[in-house]
Design brief:
The protein folds into two domains: 192 residues, Rossmann fold, CATH 3.40.50.450; 131 residues, Rossmann fold, CATH 3.40.50. It has eleven helices and 15 strands. By secondary structure, it is of the alpha/beta class. Bound molecules: 6-O-phosphono-beta-D-fructofuranose. 6-O-phosphono-beta-D-fructofuranose binds next to strand 12.
């Protein structure tokens, strides 16, 4: 007979490392003789008919290396707390009360929410309504405040790096400009890190609006210098100076981005006469096996989340700081996104190795 029962759910966009958290939580909880309930499809599993599964050593064996989440997830539904371009909404009272009744009925004494900015905003609302919640930060975007890193990010960057390595050879063979569109609605961390590690010549970020002519100049200059091919990485949320972001408005969820890569390719071709192709990396960045860094970080986060329940430090989020796993108020993580500061050391370093941000 177990001594305590805790719950966990994965919410928002999936990312590599979610299953490693589930495994870490389960192993740490079983050592305390606690039982873990995994709610299905994010917070939705808390609503009647209440979809959950018991997580134990057997059901979590061998899942660390699997992408996605064995519990399922969603970034839509009854618990959405951020919509549009990140505007906050309030989860309806009847939805909160229904979730409260589920947890009481099942005897769940602590709920671990593994999510990004939107899902942790929901978690904070639940905590403020008296739920015993612990947050675990996840997002490939790495844009959460109060943690130096989220798992999933380096697996996504590794995917971008691999894509650029492949695109380099075909671009060079055809003497083309090649545009790679990557994820990042508001924060350009994936584009910045992926662009640097994949040897891009131009990186376009949401935080640094670009000038079409400056982008075209880089392509022309490289041709004049005899380089023949040019690699451009563009974050899906990048926009030209005096221009707007390219997205489709979505009802009851955050806007759906994608498509700026095609526009960048068209503009480069028109302005330089150079043959240009584009490639949208899309959800390939979110799928697949987590890299070693993400497996380790996710496992550390999972174990720490169990420790926080044991210490009854509810309303806290596990956080990576100075090589250690610490904890911070969930509220500190969701009050604003952590964006790329244009004067960031990495941006300066990138400029030193001739990466253009299309702004100067
Ligand atoms: O927040 C993670 C993220 O992958 C963003 O980078 C991207 O814009 C969004 O989710 C895509 O979400 P969806 O899975 O709904 O297309």
């Amino acid at each position: 007979m177990y001594q305590r029962r805790i719950g966990i759910l994965t919410s928002g966009g999936d990312c590599p490392g979610l299953n490693a958290v589930l495994r870490g939580v389960t192993k740490a909880a079983e050592k305390l003789n606690w039982q873990v309930i995994g709610f299905r499809d994010g917070f939705e599993g808390l609503l009647p008919p209440c979809q959950y599964t018991i997580l134990d050593r057997a059901s979590t064996a061998g899942i660390m290396q699997l992408g996605g989440t064995i519990l399922g997830t969603t970034n839509k539904g009854h618990f959405v707390a951020k919509v549009g371009s990140g505007e906050k909404t309030t989860v309806p009272k009847e939805v909160i009360e229904s979730a409260r009744a589920t947890l009481a009925e099942l005897g769940v004494e602590g709920l671990i929410v593994v999510g990004g900015d939107g899902s942790l905003t929901t978690a904070l609302q639940l905590y403020e309504q008296g739920f015993s919640v612990i947050g675990v930060p996840k997002t490939i975007d790495n844009d959460l405040e109060a943690t130096a890193m989220t798992f999933g990010f380096y697996s996504a960057v590794s995917c971008v790096t691999d894509a650029l390595d492949r695109l380099h050879s075909t671009a060079a063979s055809h003497k083309r400009a090649m545009v790679l569109e990557v994820m990042g609605r508001h924060a350009g961390w994936i584009a910045l890190h992926g662009g640097i590690s994949g040897g891009a010549d131009i990186v376009l970020l949401p935080e640094i609006p670009f000038d079409w002519e400056k982008v075209a100049d880089v392509v022309r200059r490289r041709d004049a210098d005899g380089y023949q091919s040019t690699m451009i990485v563009v974050a899906e949320g990048a926009r030209p100076k005096d221009g707007i972001q390219h997205y489709q408005a979505t009802q009851g969820a955050e806007h759906h981005f994608g498509g700026v890569g095609e526009i960048v390719a068209q503009q480069i071709a028109e302005r330089t006469g150079k043959e240009t192709r584009y490639c949208i990396l899309g959800h390939l960045q979110r799928g697949g096996t987590p890299g070693p860094l993400d497996r380790i970080l996710a496992t550390r986060f999972g174990v720490k989340a169990v420790n926080l329940i044991q210490e009854e430090k509810f309303g806290r989020m596990v956080s990576y700081q100075h090589y250690e796993i610490a904890d911070v108020p969930i509220a500190d993580a969701v009050h604003q996104l952590r964006l790329v500061d244009p004067s960031n050391q990495l941006v300066e370093m990138a400029r030193s190795v001739d990466i253009s941000f299309g702004d100067q």
